[in-house]
Amino acid sequence: MKHIRPAILLTLFFVVFTGIVFPYSLYFIGKLMPHQANGSLVTDAKGVVIGSELIAQPFAKPEYFHPRPSGTGDLGYGTFDKDHAFAGSAGTNLGPTSDKLINGIHKKTPDGKDDPSNFDGVVDLAKAYRSENGLSETAKVPADAVTRSGSGIDPHISIENAHIQVSRVAKARHMSDDQVKKLVDEHIESRFLGVFGDPVVNVLKLNLDLDKSGK
Amino acid sequence: MSVNGFLQILIYFGIIVAITKPLGAFMAKVFEGEKTFLYRILRPLERMVYRICGIKEDEDMPWTTYAIAMLAFSAVGMVLTYVLLRTQGMINFAGLNPQGVGAKEMTPDLALNTAASFTTNTNWQNYVPETTLSYFSNMVSLAIHNWMSAATGMAIAIALIRGFSRKSAKGIGNFWVDTVRATIYVLLPIALVGGVIFIAGGVPQNFLPYQVVTTLEGAKQTIAQGPVASQEIIKMLGTNGGGFFNANSAHPFENPNNFINLLQILAIFCIPAGLTYTFGKMVGNTKQGWAIFGAMSAMFLTGAFVCNAAEQSGNPYFAKAGIMTEQTTTQPGGNMEGKEMRFGIGASTLFATVTTDASCGAVNGMHDSYTPLGGLVPLFNILTGEVIFGGVGAGLYGMLMFAIIGVFIAGLMVGRTPEYIGKKIEKFEVQMAMLVVLILAACILGFTAMSANTSYPPGATAVTFDDKHAADEAKLPPLASWNHVNTSSPSNYLGATTNNTNNGGAHGFSEILYMYASATGNNGSAFAGITGNTPHYNVTGMIAMLVGRFFMIIPLLAIAGSLAAKKRVPESLGTFSTDSGTFVALLIGVVILVNALTFFPALALGPIVEHFQMTPTRKPI
Predict the structure, then answer these.
(1) A98:B621 CB<8 A
(2) Which of B82, B140, B483, B569 is most deeply packed, by most CB within 10 A?
């Protein structure tokens, strides 16, 4: 059993070196880049942290751009209240032939309330998206607008999705469509090197700038 | 298939081709003990480790000793992790457990599963990291295995290469030295540079408690924090894949943008690809390495194209609901369920293919929500035995095993004793290789069949108890606890093990099959809808991971020992050339054939039947 000694000592080396020294080295290097190392937090005018530019926030009011729907196990988007604890990040994990994914679940409890297991399928989400944005009942909706992301906190939407929401936001803010659309186009982040990934709009950053524009 | 998706795959592949030779040549030097440009800086550290641990650098081990050392190292690591996970509530200093999680979240069966998972380079996660693990557990109990298991994998691959490169030798190298060199000269420099770039790109690295904020519309939101970057880089580089967050590399903190995403998939493939060149270099004929590389590349590219095409063509049910399916310049189209907008279809499917080709298992989108054919690609990749580049080390030794079977079959066809890299492949080597193939297949199919048919009390229908009904709960037979969801409140008894699936019908079966394929293949990605955190799945999953790791490594070390002892046969006119296109085709054929024959029936019941169910004329399930 002469191998037990090196096995234990080498494991301890890994504990100290890769388990403690390595993460703390990066931690101290990260202090040179505090914004990124601390989670890309954004603050309001008073300096209060109101979120992270990398994490989606729920938006339902018409004057804000809306993010993609969320599939996290709590209230969505990592939000919580006294009845719903923070549950981490997650997608729905529903498969392509799932009735729950397509048509959703709409049940009533015996006392006439909505069942807690109720769930909006993509058909419901598409319907809601159309009525919210004043589209016709047969209008095509962008794929990202009615599907839940892998993390449930996807901070981005597609350009098409943002453009469709422009009129609603403009109307609610008494701005012209052109003013809002101009702001949206300033927020487009293109593909990396023009090839990798998809072009996107960051919803929180866009909404913050909308608020800053003062209307 | 979109033009952009096509370009992403090709450019990515081009970079991998460019990395392979320099990194492979560097690794060959490292493992041969030659001086590299890092020698002067890192040699003192290497020597210090040998001195502290009592490792004799010049000791050469026969394969049995090598295997025992590897097992001892794995066992110590697994025990340590189990103990640390169970006691994580007591380890609360220096802000390393700000959320105050403890042993209640880490039950014994879950801790066992997790310890086995990280020790075997699988990183299957039956827990939600955000609410189950302290920073200490992530950093020390788990992330050390990202280094240890990766270094172990590389050591085993190098040992097998020595089986071919040495002649009439007793030993196949020194396990401790190989492991230390893999860590210090290969993993550490890349991880350090990569980790800094990750932070610069937006991956957090802090020890802050979770940030609670009030959003613009007034909701309370929790933003999870932690030392993410240090774990993220080694998770990709060591092909481990265990996420710091539940959503893994789909979480914007783990993978904030497409620059980082590209680095992540490059980090997954760089060492496995480089090792093919290391192999060629060490056996004295780099064309042999490129032949292996060629076979891997052909299978990778095919998978990447098919996966992209399937996801881009999307879900007919979505099309029927009036959702855009064609990609345009302003929106992604296709099947975006479970995918992140910044990655779209192209970068998501490329990641899914890479992570399952290599035994990484990190995900940047939820494979469970892929279309049937799009999800078949990751599943098939795992079922090949993780030989398409594969895990660090594991991919190469797996592919060399198929090469042995390949030359054996070619030998049968022409009636000559098969040879590979100048070594006669005889009964013992073929027996060992077939043993691996059979054990792994039996493990995957056996456990899948078991979990598709097992039923614990209360049987077919799941039962939930809240606090008021605790007395009724006590009346359930003890067996019921085998499929009880750990730490759930209210208390959840699922009964039949098929109730753990998140989807019905064929897709539910795919979730179970994917779980045991992933566990046995030491991949770690999942059709994540399945509720794995019950004693039944924790224990069976743990066994599958241990079998998949060690019943592959030990027979392969035996092959290495047997080959190293043989003489080198000079090449003659009748030798089947193993650096030719014919051999590449043969190798691909063997991998496909062995797996198609073994797993086709199971795949037919899962993704294939689901593909034919996915038609708008049929009601969804």
Answers:
(1) yes
(2) B483
Residue B590 to residues B387, B406, B442, B594, Cα–Cα distance (Å): 12, 6, 18, 6
Closest CA to B421 of B286, B224, B615: B286
pTM: 0.96
Instruction: Collect all residues with Cβ–Cβ distance below 8 Å to B346 and sequence separation of at least 6.
Output: A196, A197, A198, B2, B4, B5, B8, B9, B308
* Measured distance CA(B25)–CA(A45) in Å, rounded: 55
Residues of B in Cβ contact (< 8 Å) with A60: 217
CA distance B111 to B538: 9
DSSP B457-523: TT-SS-EEE-GGGHHHHHTS-GGGGGGBPTT-SSEEE--BGGGG-SS-HHHHHHHHHHHHHHHHTT-
In angstroms, the separation between the Cα of residue A38 and the nearest Cα of chain B is: 5
Select from A5, A11, A77 the residue whose CB has the most chain B CBs within 10 Å, as the one to mutate to test that interface: A11
Q: State the residue for tokens 């990709």.
A: B236
Contacts of A77 in chain B (CB under 8 A): 219, 221
| Count of pairs with CB atoms under 8 A, one residue in A, one in B | 414
The per-residue pLDDT for B76 is 96
DSSP H helices in B524-580: 535-564
Give the tens place of pLDDT for each residue, B552-573.
999 999 999 999 999 998 888 7
In single-letter form, the type of residue at position B280 comes to G
**Exposure of B600 by Cβ count < 10 A (0-12 exposed, 13-18 middle, 19+ buried)?**
exposed
Q: What is the pLDDT of residues B79-90, one digit of tens each?
A: 999 999 999 888
| Residue B222: DSSP 8-state | E
The secondary structure of residue A189, as a DSSP letter, is E
Residue in B559, B587, B565, B552 with CA at minimum distance from that of residue B160: B559
ipTM of the complex: 0.96
Beta strands in B122-269 (DSSP E): 211-214, 220-223
- Torsional sign, CA A194, A197, A200, A205: negative
Please give the Cα distance from A186 to A206 (Å, whole number). 9
Token duo for residue B63:
């394969």
Instruction: Please give the residue of chain B at the shortest CA–CA distance from A62.
Output: B217
Report the amino acid identity of residue A20: I
